[in-house]
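Page 37, continued from 36.
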């Protein structure tokens, strides 16, 4: 079992950050985050998530018109912003990712099932990415306040990938934190049957 300080870092004291210091993130660290997150489970090992790491000025300016007003300053000042996306044609990789059966056939020709599977598992993978970044000592800030259609047109016209949510990464500035909000109690959120 992980010790208390690891559990704090992953969950109890980890916060969603609203402002960032100037500390950069290396490409090696971005790779390390992915190398952990990729092992999180997905149905049939489908691994539909795609991650686009935006660091450069040009990439950020492409994202800017899609951001809701409240997300502009924090996104423009984060060391890196990740577009957490998914590939609706993820099933083309299944002959490699899940060779035990013809899993590609479950999804090819069933667009609704493919979309549901890609969105569910791509979202899970976005959560794994958050926890991997925290495990490596980074702060995170997920956001759904943006126009997905604008992002998809600007970044995914060639690939057909679809954006799900955005994730700022960096070293948070604790001065901009709101007080921690309460969570539901076990009895409010859980049943043991
Ligand atoms: C999927 C998702 C979308 C979110 N969208 C936004 C957003 O657009 N803008 C924002 O400022 N915070 C956004 N948040 C941040 C949440 O409000 C924050 O994670 C939550 O209140 C818990 O805060 P804490 O981690 O500091 O306790 C989002 C969080 C998630 C997971």
């Amino acid at each position: 079992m992980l010790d208390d300080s690891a559990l704090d870092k992953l969950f109890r004291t980890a916060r969603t950050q609203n402002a960032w210091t100037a500390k950069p993130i290396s490409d090696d660290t971005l790779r390390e985050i992915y190398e952990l997150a990729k092992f999180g489970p997905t149905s049939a090992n489908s691994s539909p998530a795609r991650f686009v790491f935006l660091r450069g000025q040009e990439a950020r300016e492409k994202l800017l018109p899609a951001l809701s007003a409240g997300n502009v300053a924090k996104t423009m000042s984060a060391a890196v912003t990740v577009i957490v996306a998914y590939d609706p044609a993820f099933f083309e990789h299944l002959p490699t990712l899940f060779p035990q059966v013809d899993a590609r056939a479950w999804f090819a020709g069933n667009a609704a099932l493919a979309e549901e599977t890609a969105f569910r598992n791509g979202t899970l993978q976005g959560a794994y990415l958050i926890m991997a970044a925290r495990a490596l000592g980074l702060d995170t800030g997920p956001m759904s306040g943006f126009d997905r259609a604008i992002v998809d047109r600007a970044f995914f016209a060639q690939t057909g990938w679809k954006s799900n949510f955005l994730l700022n990464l960096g070293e948070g500035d604790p001065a901009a934190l709101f007080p921690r909000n309460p969570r539901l109690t076990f009895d409010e959120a859980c049943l043991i049957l």
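The CA atoms of residues 54 and 60 lie 6 Å apart. Flag for discussion at group meeting. The longest helix spans residues 111-135.
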